[in-house]
Each structure stands twice: as structure tokens, then as C-alpha cells.
């Protein structure tokens, strides 16, 4: 005859937290292994010999609140703006600047339509135009 104890205890080990710990350890080692061996291409770059880089100043084109156009500090009427800008670009090219850039300064009270018309003149002359903005802070 077998006597069994009804109050027999079942021993269990709770491993739920162990799964979480193992997952975080696995992620840590995967990230650490990736950072330890970056997949970068190592190149030996050539060195420059004595040539100086020439910094070109952009052509400054300004429009003030009274719709007066300036190339540099010289006022230019709107109907002569394209011809004067073409002459200034040609002078820059003659001085060795193969790709002159026009930096456009527009007063904030001037409409965007006016600025777009000037940028259209630059597009007709095949010149790069940059619109200058004021930084905050």
C-alpha cells in the first residue's frame, strides 16, 4: 500500500526576469561588437603641394525697401540690371572666377515676386544665386 502525501510541494524556478536580462546582454554585445569593428574603408589620401586655395567673393546684389537695386555698392536701375549683372559676371570670369556666384540680399519688406524676378534674371544669365537670410540668435 502506497501512502502519498497530499501536501507535496512543487519546486519551480521563475526564469521570466532571466529572459529579459539575457536579451539586454545580447543586444549590448551585438552593439559593442559592431562598434569595435567598424566597416570603414581605409584610404591613404594624396597630399597637396604648395597650391593655395583661392577664395572667391560672391557678387553682391541688394534690393532695399525702396526697390533700389545695388550691385556691390553701386545703384543700378531695374531696366539696366540684367546688362550690368552680365558685365559684372564677365569681369569675374576674366579675373579667373569660372563660376561666379551672386549673393542676393533682399529687404524683408520687399515682396517675394520682386526677388523671384531678380532670381529669374540670374537664371537667364546661367549664374548661381544665393538668397541671404538673417540668422536668429
Short structural summary:
This protein is α/β, with parallel strands linked by helices and 137 residues long. It contains 3 helices and 5 strands. It has a domain of 58 residues.
Structural class: alpha/beta
Poorly predicted runs: none
| Mean pLDDT value | 84
- Widest sheet: strand ordering: 3-2-1-4-5
Please give the count of helices: 3
Account of the protein in words:
By secondary structure, this protein is α/β, with parallel strands linked by helices. The chain has a domain at 74-131. Helix content is 35%, strand content 15%. The chain has 3 helices and 5 strands. Strands 3-2-1-4-5 form a 5-stranded mixed beta sheet, covered by helices on one side. A hairpin with a 2-residue loop joins strand 2 (69-71) and strand 3. The chain is elongated.
Key descriptive features of the protein:
5-stranded mixed β-sheet; 137 residues
Which secondary structure elements does this structure contain, and how are they paired or packed?
Blueprint: H1 16-36, E1 59-63, E2 69-71, E3 74-76, H2 81-94, E4 101-106, H3 112-124, E5 128-131
Parallel strand pairs: 1-4, 4-5
Antiparallel strand pairs: 1-2, 2-3
Amino acid at each position: 500500500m502506497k501512502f502519498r502525501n497530499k501536501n507535496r510541494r512543487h519546486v519551480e524556478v521563475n526564469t521570466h526576469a532571466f529572459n529579459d536580462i539575457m536579451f539586454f546582454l545580447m543586444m549590448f554585445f551585438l552593439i559593442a561588437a559592431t562598434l569595435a569593428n567598424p566597416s570603414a574603408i581605409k584610404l591613404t589620401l594624396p597630399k597637396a603641394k604648395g597650391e593655395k586655395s583661392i577664395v572667391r567673393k560672391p557678387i553682391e546684389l541688394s534690393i532695399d525697401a525702396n526697390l533700389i537695386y545695388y550691385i556691390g555698392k553701386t545703384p543700378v536701375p531695374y531696366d539696366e540690371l540684367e546688362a550690368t549683372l552680365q558685365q559684372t559676371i564677365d569681369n569675374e570670369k576674366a579675373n579667373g572666377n569660372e563660376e561666379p556666384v551672386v549673393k542676393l540680399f533682399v529687404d524683408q519688406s520687399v515682396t517675394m515676386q520682386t526677388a523671384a524676378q531678380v532670381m529669374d534674371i540670374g537664371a537667364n544669365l546661367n549664374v548661381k544665386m544665393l538668397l541671404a537670410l538673417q540668422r536668429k540668435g
